[in-house]
Amino acid sequence: MALHNQLGKDGEKLAEEYLLKKGYEILHRNWRYSFYEIDIIARRNKLLHIIEVKTLSASSPGYPEDSVTKRKFKRLLLAADEFLYQHPEYRHVQYDILSITLRHPEPEFFLIEDVYL
Looking at the domain assignment, is residue 117 inside a domain? Predict the structure, then answer.
């Protein structure tokens, strides 16, 4: 597996642990529809959260969330539309980005809530 793929998998595992500690209920991880994927689908306080997880090592330049482009966000919306079509019970949805920077000794988390590009 390529290093960046492993970094992403590790980041998603850290994200899940972080969200559980914050009171989220994880419904799906890596939910797929066609060519699209949602990293994490979670629920908290009757609100559905569609969460894009981005991870960088501390030695990488910039911030993880900078890699969420309009094109990437549009793909996330297409996947979310299909999920909501398949699960009409969810009426309230929010799109979030969870940015993780792998620092030593602890990773740094930055949750950007209610995003729309």
Answer: no
| Domain encompassing residue 29 | 3-112
Whether 43 is in a domain gets the answer yes
Q: Identify whether 13 is part of a domain.
A: yes
Angstrom distance (rounded) from CA 46 to CA 51: 15
How many structural domains compose the chain?
1
pLDDT digits (tens, 9 = 90+) for 87-112: 999 999 999 999 999 988 899 999 99
pLDDT digits (tens, 9 = 90+) for 27-76: 999 999 999 999 999 999 999 999 999 999 888 888 999 999 999 999 99
State the CATH number of the domain containing residue 17.
Answer: 3.40.1350.10
Over residues 73-88, mean pLDDT:
96
Do 29 and 39 touch, CB atoms closer than 8 A?
A: yes
36-43: long-range pairs with CB below 8 Å, 24+:
36/75, 36/76, 36/78, 36/79, 36/82, 37/79, 38/76, 38/79, 38/80, 38/83, 39/12, 39/15, 40/12, 40/15, 40/16, 40/98, 41/83
